[in-house]
Specification:
The strands form two sheets. A four-stranded mixed sheet has the order 1-6-5-4. By secondary structure, it is an alpha+beta fold. Helix 2 runs antiparallel to helix 3.
Length: 145
Amino acid sequence: MKPRYRHFNSKRRLLGEADVVSAVLRLSELADRVSYGGNPEHKKNPGDFGLTPPSDPRQAKSLCDVAHIFSRKEALDLLRQGITKGLVSDREEQGWPKNVWSVTNDGIPLEAQLENAQIGCYHGYPMPDSDPLASEVIFRWRQHG
């Protein structure tokens, strides 16, 4: 069962297409350096993420299990694809986008939040169907093949 959210951060916006074109090289460099940390609050099955505690699912949090993401490698690959395709936030912290979005092979939109700007580390989770940004993420993902 997916949690229901009533409010979403209205400051979240995808970087504009023109800005993505001008930032292709920088985004490629970020994708090479990015890391994935994970968050036990988004895990029922701990997979190979090595988190402490291994899992600590919270009722108000969406679970990675819904998207069938159980390995750090898969999460990192999706994060890198999102950056490379330009599905990044228009807001940054220390040169890292605040958010990165991607879509699984099953069409589930994902959102990653920057958790440590010093090392470019993110944690991610499936976007709820009720999130108005989810359909835009899917559209842009498909646009960039």
